[in-house]
Amino acid sequence: MKEFNNRNKKDNNKKYWYFPFFSAKFPTQKVKASVGNIWWSLSVIAVVFVWCFHAVKEQNWLFLVLGICGGAAAEFFLIRDFVRTRKSEKEDKNPDKKEIK
Fold it and tell me: What is the mean pLDDT of residues 75-99?
């Protein structure tokens, strides 16, 4: 999932989330990265918990392994996106410290 600002339009306080499996862009309000990623992270944990609970109940060990690996991968990408967004927010606050290449 990529996030980018559409600076060509007059409304600069809107951000657009691009979902790789869909062709549509979903506009969202500009919120702090930590709040958005906490809710995404909690929803991923809840889905993985239900998935793994069902897999153990049905004794389907392949689904259990897929659920654990998929949840770990989703959390990895959420944390990576969170760190990148926090870095870009810090750079936006201090524009003088940006390196010009």
Answer: 68
Q: What is the DSSP letter of 96?
A: G
Supply the pTM of this predicted model: 0.48
Let me know whether 88 and 58 are in one domain: yes
Q: Express each pLDDT in 15-34 by its tens digit.
A: 555 445 444 444 444 445 45
Q: Are 26 and 39 in a shared domain?
A: no
- In terms of residue numbers, what domain contains 19? 1-30
Q: Higher confidence at residue 94 or residue 18?
A: 94
Tally the domains of the chain.
2
Q: Are residues 50 and 20 located together in one domain of the fold?
A: no
